[in-house]
Design brief:
It is a single chain. The protein is 30% helix and 33% strand. With 108 residues, the protein is an alpha+beta fold. It has one domain (20-107): 2-Layer Sandwich (Dodecin subunit-like). It has a four-stranded mixed beta sheet, covered by helices on one side. Strand 3 and strand 4 (97-107) form a beta hairpin.
């Protein structure tokens, strides 16, 4: 393959854009036990904190990876705040990123 400056630059840009959302977030120890739920029983759960997480590199092809990374960030934050349950709210998609607000709870 003959690669002049313009062609090589185009190939590099294409690869960076197409692979942008395929980054994996490290799983903190204990995060595998954090549950993602849609509601909590206020009598059984204590509110700990809220945290906003953002993942850059969104693309339609890698949506599931990007969403998985975002949820993992929420679970990691729960571990840091001594929580075991999270609710994802205020989910937003931007050009090149996704973000969500996670409410962190400790439930019995």
């Amino acid at each position: 393959m003959n690669c002049n400056k313009k062609n090589c630059f185009s190939i590099v840009i294409f690869l960076l854009v197409s692979c942008g959302g395929v980054k994996f977030v490290e799983e903190k120890p204990g995060s595998e036990y954090v549950k993602l739920v849609t509601t909590v029983d206020q009598k059984q759960c204590e509110f700990k904190s809220e945290v906003k997480e953002t993942v850059k590199g969104y693309s339609d092809k890698s949506y599931s990876n990007t969403e998985r990374n975002l949820i993992q960030l929420g679970k990691n934050a729960a571990v840091e705040k001594d929580g075991n349950t999270i609710i994802m709210s205020e989910y937003r998609q931007y050009r090149g990123a996704q973000s969500a607000l996670f409410k962190i709870y400790t439930c019995k």
